[in-house]
Amino acid sequence: KSANPQWREQFDFHYFSDRKDMLDIEVWRKDNKKHEELLGTCQVDITALPMKQTNRLELPLEKHPGSLLMLIAVAPCTGVSISDLCVCPLGDPIERQQISRRYCIKNSFRDIKDIGFLQVKVLKAVDLLAADFSGKSDPFCVLELGNDMLQTHTVYKNLNPEWNKVFTFPIKDIHDVLEVTVFDEDGDKPPDFLGKVAIPLLSV
C-alpha cells in the first residue's frame, strides 16, 4: 500500500569483466497471490560504472511514471568461482592446505565476516520432466545462497543433462539455505520450472 516503497535490500551479482552485460530491473505490483502488474523497467550499463566505489543512481522507469533509487558498487569479487571439475579450487592440495590454515581455530577471530565458503559440484540430473513438444527439455541449473546466485550452462534437448561444474560461494550466514533449482530454457519466454531442492547449510 505504498507509492514510495523502501526495500533496503542488498543483492550480490557475480559479474565477469569479459562480458558486456546490462543489469535489467523490473518493478512489479502485487494485488494478491494471483494478480501481478508490471509497473516499469530500467537498465544499467555495468561497463560504464566506475570501479571500486558506490554509485548512487536515480533511474527513471521506462514508459511508466516513477523512478528507482539504487546504490551499485562494482568491486573485485573474492571467494566466488565457476570452474570445471578438473580444475576445481579444492582439488589443489596446496590451496586446500592454505584454506585449512585460514580457517583453523586460532584464526577464528581474525576476520569475523569471513565465516567460510561452500563448494558445490553440480554433476547431472536424471529423468527430468519433458517441457517441450518434442518430448525433451533444455535444462539449466540455478544455485542460490542468500542473495547470491550462480547458474550452469543450458544442455539442449536432454532429460539427463550433465553439467559437471563446480561453484564456490562465500558464506555470510551459517543459517542460510542452498537452493538448487532446475529450469527449462524457453527462448524469450520465462523459463519453465522442472524441480528444486533446498539444503540447509547446517545440515552439511
UniProtKB/TrEMBL annotation:
Protein name as annotated: MCTP2 protein
A Pfam cross-reference name: C2
Boundaries of every C2 domain copy: 1-59, 93-204
Annotated organism of origin: Oxyruncus cristatus
A single MF term (Gene Ontology): calcium ion binding
Keywords, sorted A to Z: Calcium, Membrane, Metal-binding, Repeat, Transmembrane, Transmembrane helix
Annotated PROSITE patterns: C2
Entry superkingdom: Eukaryota
Membrane-topology annotation of the record: Multi-pass membrane protein
GO cellular-component term (any): synaptic vesicle membrane
Family listed: Belongs to the MCTP family.
Places the protein is found: Membrane
InterPro entries: C2_dom, C2_domain_sf
Gene that this polypeptide is encoded by: Mctp2
Gene3D superfamilies: C2 domain (2.60.40.150)
GO BP field: regulation of neurotransmitter secretion
